[in-house]
Amino acid sequence: MSIETTHVHQSGVSHEAHHEVHHGHHHETFLTKYVFSQDHKTIAKQFLITGMFWALVGGFFSVIFRLQLGFPDAKFPWLEDLLGEWARGGQLQAEAYYALVTMHGTVLVFFVLTAGLSGTFSNFLIPLQVGARDMASPFMNMLSYWFFFVASIVMLSSLFVQTGPFSGGWTAYPPLSALGQASPGSKVGMDLWLVSMALFVVSSLLGGLNYIATVLNLRTKGMSMTRLPLTIWAFFFTAVLGVLSFPVLFSGFILLIFDRHFGTSFYLSDIYINGQALPNEGGSAILYQHLFWFLGHPEVYIILLPAMGMVSEILSVNSRKPIFGYMAMVGSLFAIAILAFLVWAHHMFVTGLNPFLGAFFVLLTLLIAVPSAIKVFNWLTTIWKGNLRFTPAMLFALGFVSLFISGGLTGIFLGNSSLDIHLHDTYFVIAHFHIVMGVASMFGMFAGIYHWFPKMYGRYLNNTLGYIHFWATMIGAYLIFWPMHYEGLAGMPRRYYKYDIWESFKQFGTLNQFISVVAVIVFLVQILFLLNFFYSIWKGRKVTTLNPWSANTLEWTTPINPGHGNWEGEIPEVHRWAYDYGKDGKEFIPQTTPVSADESKH
Amino acid sequence: MAQVMSERNQKMHPHKFLLWVAIGSITMMFAGFTSAYIVKSNQAGWVPVQLPKIFYLSTVLILLSSGTIYLAQRMFKQREMAKYRLLITTTALIGIAFVVTQLLGFSELWAQNITFKESVAGSFFYVIAGVHGLHVAGGVVALFVMFFRAFSTSTRYYSSTPVDVVSIYWHFVDILWIYLFVFFLLVA
What we know:
The complex is a heterodimer of chains A (602) and B (188).
Chain A: H1 2-27, H2 30-35, H3 40-70, H4 77-83, H5 94-130, H6 138-158, H7 188-217, H8 230-261, E1 272-273, E2 276-277, H9 285-319, H10 326-340, H11 355-367, H12 369-383, H13 392-414, H14 417-423, H15 427-457, H16 463-489, H17 509-539, E3 581-583, E4 586-588
Antiparallel strand pairs in A: 1-2, 3-4
Chain B: H1 2-10, H2 14-41, H3 54-77, H4 81-111, H5 120-151, H6 161-186
Helix pairs in contact in B: 2-6, 3-4, 3-6, 4-5, 5-6
């Protein structure tokens, strides 16, 4: 009985798919194929290219404010041509500096490393690697991109309003963010920021819901959870984190909107501004910080986990060895996902938080070192005695591990509430989170792009340019952020416009110049990467084999340029995990190969 | 092989599953709101708000509507379409009545000088109950879609999944309101 009904079900599915493919050939127009596409692969590319646009914008902002930090007294007439009033007389104005710092943070954290990273690769890889024709709801998936697109337009438009974009830091703490009188950026710029972020939250939620439902519901026959590639596990936990934490941020934003426009006092109390007392009574600015960091900390892992997952996969494929400690990798991802929700107050040690409470957050924060160390250990043992193939993707994956170690170690310093009294809001923090979260995740993203570009576009990226890109970025990242540790230990505060009134920070003048020069060079190298990317889409070397990296996962069983629906016939069945490399004298055994009788156990 | 295939058959419909995850997400938003309320209520200068009696009425209304949508779902599965149409229409109307009752409650409270400017506890109540009301309104829109589908003469619908999805969501906003109502009564 059950066999009969399931047969009906199965053939129903394949009929539907055939129909879809057939349907596609006849009615796809430019609009439905490239613009309002419901194909997860196209949506992934839309996320990627929009993310690249934002990375260019956000990166360029950092170049401009680094010029100010490195050369506070120099005049750049071209800057006035570009920014007008913001750079009167060729010098960046203080207001513009704060606006650029704020936008750099917002854009890079949310638009590039959340939407650009998880939006791209969760979309692209989940259906391909679990063996599904598309997401659970392709329509919601399309909406997810278009919400992100509108959020982008709104954020972009805030750059062009007269009072400038929001300038109170990417965390948007009240009262600075709640009161229009507080600064020019807190006027209409902040409203646009809030609208854009609200749309962004909706986009993330729509995406996250889909990723979770697809991983749990649409796996192909034989693809049990423990046979999933680690990429999928990482995207899954990322989506869970997003779905549980973004709504809390949203509730915080709603209260902020009411404080700004409807006279409530959720976050405001006892405020004098320009010599005038405000009527607001009974609010608490710390409340916002709790709501913000309840998202803000999981957000760090929303950024990092996809990179971890892709690096695990790429390291294993290019070492021609199984991943070391698969279950430990899954377990540590799970542990990180749980702990992510229990450490938010370590961003708030100096807000007057009860020191007794602080002690628990210190303990929980330092506990994250355990799963992180497990992951590092397993990556290192995966490449240990492997047949390493140094493709650009592999180099970026190795770079990720290096950055994750060096950035992670400084996290142990910052997780201590007593050390934090000295280190908070200094360049030490900047160095820590840029290395461990920003640059490391960026490396994970580059690794993913180099590795899956052949699947995305059916062509290869140029390897030589890839190597130049890697080495310049790797060396540059350390040259930029390593010296910042020293500045931070010396107490140099972050976010300041100028440091010339402090005798003690004058010693860092040339160091700041050095950092700025390297930052400009690294930025230019990224443009080289973009040229490589767009040139290769049309003119790159063509992929001629189905499985160019000799990898085990399902995406390499699809046609070189898969259509909507991914597989032309039936979806293949899975018989083994994704990491049978170098087993029984075979270089690799794809997941679709049945287990033979004389095969050794793994 | 047969086992694997039948296992696949028993899996939840993706749309239903999507809804459950979304419910988890919405729950987190209200967890954020209510924990903010608890944190604030423990600080100095907190003046609690007495809820008007009309909110008991709205609570009864939404409980009632949960009952009618449950019956509607059963009637749909038994293909008793006349009863189903009646029940789905009733549910939508009670849903509207609930939103109206909430608004009446708000204005009664506002008339007692519990405004955004005067009362932090009141502001919290307006925002939290208001956001809940928006979720109910969203449910009413979904109910109207079901309503028009039920009365459509050109297409007949046989899959019970859309009815199930709307029904689960409706029970959820019901339970959410009960939680919020008890919460506001207790944490005062």
